[in-house]
Amino acid sequence: MRALAQAPSDPDRLIAGTLTGVFGSRDAGRTWRRISPESNSEIRNLDSLAVDPRQPDVFYAGTFHLPWKTSDGGRNWIPVYTGMIDDSDVMSLLVDRTNPDHVYASACSGIYRSENGAALWQKIQGIPYAARRTHVMAQDPVYPQIVYAGTTEGLWKSGDGGAGWR
To answer: How many CB atoms sit inside 10 A of residue 99's CB?
Structure first.
């Protein structure tokens, strides 16, 4: 297992990303079932997962290649990479808890933000090129406009939702 996420609106819902696909539990981890198509060679080698804070059936999976989204708990998946460089290992995903249409993704090619549920990504500027490998992102629990990025060059903080970093 390489990624694990819990649905904020339903703590019994867990999603696990593995080398072979995505698995889900609806009973706090007592039982698991595959929720990504076994025949899909792209939804494997998962690095990151994120769940919409209001809708537990909407979640995102970051793979070794690109991000994917399901809006129906894993029955159907769509690739969501428009605007993202097409060789991006998606290492971290973050859904804004105050506006779930805002999604962040960190990839080999940098940090991206979507304002429409990952339909279109825009690369965020401000973190130096040397620090572009961002392995983890987090939203401040009290001030949602504050986003943290843990990079290979240190910790970065944005006080304005990713527009500027220090």
So the answer is: 12
